[in-house]
Design brief:
Layout lengths: L1 H22 L4 H20 L11 H10 L4 H19 L3 H5 L16 H10 L3 H13 L3 H5 L10 E5 L8 E5 L2 H17 L20 H14 L6 H14 L4 H8 L4 H5 L6 H29 L1
Antiparallel strand pairs: 1-2
Helix pairs in contact: 1-2, 2-4, 6-7, 7-9, 7-11
């Protein structure tokens, strides 16, 4: 009876999760796939009399999936990623991430963090106005390729940009401040954009191709890759976003604030974008030693005063 109630709770949370995905404008095929995977794993755990609620699933349950769920390892990694996302969103349960099971070090895909100075050099020598605005929005505002592609002219205010998050039609909106370089680049681009629309109807999208039609997110991504290759760099639009998050956190901004700035649902997602430089680890250890030494001296002085 208790297990059935937990299974019902899990399905209730699954329905809530699906509603959230729908509200964010995710594709129906993607939502259907996620639903089937999560439902199947819930039933798998419940049939083994293990916890299946997103709040209660722990290492024992995850290892049962790893060792006993009847799919190939590659598919299992994908299923665990979907399952983990559901647990994190619905219950802040990051057990899969803490176990480091999604991508073990031996076959973790090479995640890229762009070099900001290289991106800035690319921006300075780039002569295509569309490429320039794409680059500056990614490196100075931390926007996703989809967010850049879905920007509308009406989203730009004097000092702020309204960003249409994932699921741009029904998804969440957020506002982020505009840097001086972005303002200047937008002003230059608007002149070029008006020339693209001669004898064409204005659809309202900010970023347009040479045919006067909006660019897709894929086209935005490919433009960044081509720019990088032309300059001998290995940079993607998302690697610029990771660099933006890393530099923001290194500047002392709290992770909760950074998470809101870049449109993450949870600071835990933001943390996964952080590139911890080995030098920072060394500095952290040095600061710890300095702190302990100061504490020991203070403790010793306090003891002498009491005597």
């Amino acid at each position: 009876m208790k297990m059935e109630r937990e299974r019902e709770d899990a399905f209730y949370n699954l329905d809530r999760y699906v509603d959230r995905l729908l509200n964010r404008g995710r594709k129906e095929t993607t939502i259907t796939s996620y639903y089937q995977v999560i439902r199947s794993l819930i039933n798998f755990l419940a049939n083994k009399h293990l916890h299946c609620s997103p709040r209660l699933v722990a290492e024992r349950e995850i290892m049962a999936i790893v060792n006993g769920y009847p799919v190939a390892d590659l598919s299992k990694k994908s299923y665990l990623q979907v399952f983990s996302r559901w647990m994190m969103v619905m219950a802040d349960n990051d057990v899969v991430r803490r176990m480091d099971l999604l991508w073990p070090s031996s076959d973790r895909p090479r995640r890229k963090w762009a070099n900001y100075n290289e991106a800035l050099r690319m921006f300075k020598i780039e002569d295509d106005p569309t490429n320039r605005i794409i680059l500056v929005l990614a490196m100075d505002e931390g926007m996703r390729a989809t967010e850049i592609a879905h920007m509308m002219v009406e989203d730009i205010n004097e000092n702020w940009i309204r960003v249409r998050g994932k699921g741009h039609r029904n998804g969440k909106f957020r506002s982020i401040p505009i840097s001086d370089r972005v303002i200047e680049t937008i002003e230059q681009y608007m002149e070029y954009r008006s020339r693209l629309l001669i004898d064409k109807e204005d659809c309202g999208s900010l970023i347009l191709g040479r045919n006067g039609m909006p660019l897709t997110a894929h086209a935005v991504t490919q433009r960044v890759i081509r720019m990088a290759k032309k300059n001998g760099n290995d940079i993607t639009a998302h690697s610029l976003r990771r660099r933006f998050i890393t530099d923001t956190l290194n500047s002392g901004v709290k992770i909760e604030v950074c998470s809101k700035l870049v449109g993450h649902e949870s600071p835990m997602v933001t943390a996964s974008y952080y590139d911890c430089d080995p030098e920072l680890l060394s500095n952290a250890m040095a600061k710890r030693r300095e702190y302990l030494m100061r504490g020991g001296i203070q403790s010793e002085n306090w003891t002498k005063k009491r005597k």
